[in-house]
Every structure is written in structure tokens, then in C-alpha cells.
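Annual report, structural modelling task.

Input specification for the 2BA complex:
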Amino acid sequence: MKLIIAIVQDQDEVVLSNAFLEANIRATKLSTTGGFLRAGNTTYLVGVNDEQVDDVLDIIRRSSSSRERYISQPMGMDTSIDMSSSPMKVEVGGATVFVLPVDGFYQF
Ligand code: 2BA
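The model returned the following structure:
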């Protein structure tokens, strides 16, 4: 068994939730915040059998888009770097995904 942790942009959340429902994939959705942009994103926890991992990755890939964001000064960034005249472009997503082995799965 594997635990898939997928961080997606909030704009992709509805499409991905619907895709999981359609494919009968059980997922838990968390409201999260990116450490760099300090913007909201959505993190899914998906527990699946090993043979389902590729299908879940496909669903996530198809449901997540990459987007450009412009930021003037991320909170907490070194303020000695003057970014006032040149907003920085960052490409966010589609999805950041971790696949972890699961030692145990219990429902009490
Ligand atoms: P954020 O941390 O808010 O990062 C948003 C985007 O800002 C990143 O997109 C990346 O393009 C850029 N970025 C992040 N840190 C940067 C830095 N030190 N310097 C320059 N640009 C930087 P993504 O890479 O697509 O990441 C989207 C979100 O996925 C992240 O939001 C974070 O919530 C999560 N994430 C990404 N990598 C992660 C990791 N290794 N561990 C845990 N969460 C991660």
C-alpha cells in the first residue's frame, strides 16, 4: 500500500475532487498554505493499493494545470533584496506529489 500526498492549486481542487469521486478513489482533502507564496493550496491524502498508484498519478496529472504567478516580495524573504521594481515570475504547479510506503492501515 502507498500514501500519495498531492499538493495542488486551489483552482484545480474541484476538478480533482470530482475526478477522484468518478474513479472511486478515496481521498482526504486538507486546506494548506504554501511556505513560499503564503497562498492557499489544497493537499490530498490518498491511500491506495500499489497497483492503483499509476492511475491516481494520471488523474492528478490530468486535473492539475501549471500557472504563472507574479510576486513582489514573498513574506519572510530577505528584505535586503530589493524587488520593488521587478516582480518575480514563478511557475506554480501543476501538482507536487509524494508517494510514500505505508507500513500499516487501520480503521477502528
Ligand atoms: P509555495 O511554497 O507557495 O511555492 C509556490 C511556487 O513558488 C513553487 O511552485 C515554486 O515555483 C516557487 N518557489 C517555491 N520556493 C521557492 C524558492 N525558494 N525560490 C524560488 N521560487 C520558489 P511549486 O514548486 O509548483 O510548488 C507548489 C506548492 O507545492 C508550494 O507552494 C508548496 O506548498 C508545495 N511544495 C513544493 N515543493 C515542496 C516540497 N519539497 N515539500 C513540501 N511542499 C512542497
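The radius of gyration is 17 Å.
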